[in-house]
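[09:14] KT: can someone run the structure on this one? pasting the chain below
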Amino acid sequence: MLQRPPQQQYAALCYRFHPVHGLQVLLLTSRETRRWVIPKGWPMKGKKAHAVAEQEAYEEAGVRGKAEKEPFGFYAYVKKRKTGVKVPVRVQVHALQVDEMLETFPERESRSLEWVSCMDAATRVQEPELRNLLLAFDRRMASSVPEKVRAVGR
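[09:31] RB: done, structure tokens below
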């Protein structure tokens, strides 16, 4: 059987610092299966990977912010097309600090959103590599955030 090469997607790992709960990441439900995911999408002509991540974060979750140009990491999953064909996908993830949440955005009616801790997010997502990325992001942020901010809400 022939193995298809993975297709490429770009994702935003949206995060914020809540005054009570500390570091939180944004999860949203996928439109078809209602699984917990992060905003992601296909390449867009004329846009760099981090810009695609920013655009997907806006369209799917209604958030605005600046995505890091360098990817934080990668994960793989299998996308099932409407035709039933299963396609391997490699997702390049860019951390995006959220500056603004909008009331209206293109996919508002078809998704649910929740701000959660990285640990909670890791228990909700199905993809093992995404789970590991969320835990690695928690470790990265714990080592780079000032102690005063980290202590809030713990």
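[09:33] KT: thanks! The beta strands are 7-18, 22-29, 36-37, 40-41, 63-67, 73-80, 86-101, 113-116.
[09:34] RB: yep, looked fine to me
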